[in-house]
Amino acid sequence: MIPFNKPYLTGKEAIFVNEAIQSRRLAGDGKFSTKCTEWIKKYTSCREVFLTNSCTASLEIASILAGVEAGDEVIMPSFTFVSTANAVALRGAVPVFVDIREDTMNIDEELIESAVTHKTKAIIAVHYAGVGCEMDVIMDIARRNNLIVIEDAAQGFMSDYKGKALGTIGDIGCYSFHETKNVTCGKGGALFINNDRFSKRAEIIRDVGTDRGKFLRGEVNQYGWIDLGSSYILGEIGSAYLWAQLLEAEAITENRLIAWNKYNSQLRELEEVGVIRRPKVPINCKHNGHIYYALLKNGINRDDFLERMKKNSVQSVFHYIPLHNSPAMRKLKTKYNSQRLPITEDLSSRIVRLPMWTGVEAHISDVTAVVKKSIEVD
After folding, report:
1. Distances, alpha carbon 238 to alpha carbons 113, 120, 188, 203, 360, in Å
2. For 208-231, what is each residue's pLDDT tens digit?
3. CB 3.0–4.6 Å: which of 11, 219, 240, 246 could bond 20 by disulfide?
4. What is the CATH number of the domain that holds 347?
5. Whole-structure pTM over 0.85, yes or no?
C-alpha cells in the first residue's frame, strides 16, 4: 500500500530529543524552543513568534487576542478544518461562512465585505494547500471596517504571497507542525504576531494566563494569574524534534515541490479530456507542495473511485465536510444555519487528495497509473 501520509525523518530527531531530555528542562521555552523560534523569525521575517502545542492552540490564542466575545461574528470559509471555527465558537461568537473561489479553493475575497455586519470582529483567511488567499484585498477590507485579520496558515509553512511569508501579512498568523504537515514535530504549532499591540498579551495567554515568562527572565520576583489563558506552550521534546526538521526545511520543501510538479505533469492528460481538474496556483503565490488534489468531474462517484484506488494499493482520501452543514453549526442555532454555499458544496463533494509526503516522488508514476485506471472504470 502506498500510504497517503508518511512523516519524514531527518535522522537527527532522536539525537536532539535525547539532548533535550538530558537538559532536564522539558516544559518548553528552553534551548531548542529558542533555536526554532529564531530560525522561523529569520526565515519568515516575522516580528514575534511563539511556539504552541498545536495550530488549534494558536487559533484559540488569536481569537482571545482579537477580542472575540459572545455575540460577535467572525468571517471565514466553511471549507476548512474544524479548529478554525472552534476557536471562535469557544468564545461564544458565531462563525460566518463565506463561499470559496473555484480556482484556489480559498475564501472568495469578493464576497467578504457583503458579509460584514456591526457584529463582525475579525476575518480568518485560510490558506488552503499552502496557496495564499488574496491578502491585499482582504487587508483592505479589514482596515476599512476596523477588523482584525487572522491567517490560518496551518498548511502554509514555507509558502508566500507576493514575496511575504504566509502568516506574516495579517495581524496574527497561525501555523501547524502536525505529523501530516511538511515540517512536523508530531503535534505542534506557532503563533505569529505582526501587530505590536498583541505581543505582550500573547505571551501571557500562551502561558496559562500568567507572567511566568517575565519571572523566568528575572524581570519579576514572582509570577501570578494576569489574564485569560491556557497551557498552550510546546514542550521541549517537541521543540527538539522540530529543530531537526527545520534544519532541512528548505530541502523538504524542494522535494515536495518536485513531487507536486510530477503529479501535475502526469495528470495533465486527464484534465485535457475533462475527467479531472488539477490544482491552480495564482502567479503571485509561491506554494510549498503540501497537498496534491484533483477535482473529479461531476458524474464520477468519489466513494467508488477511492475504493478502487485502495484495491490497487493506493491510499487516497478526501476532505473537508463543509462546516456550515455540520451538526455543531446546527447546534449554534444562528441566522446562518440555512446558509447555502454552492461552490463549497460542489467542490468538497468532488475533491480527492493523492499520497503526498517527502519521498513519494518515487511512487508517483504508480499512483497516477492507478488514478487513470480507477477513472476509466466509470
Report:
1. 40, 36, 7, 19, 25
2. 999 998 988 889 999 999 999 999
3. 240
4. 3.90.1150.10
5. yes
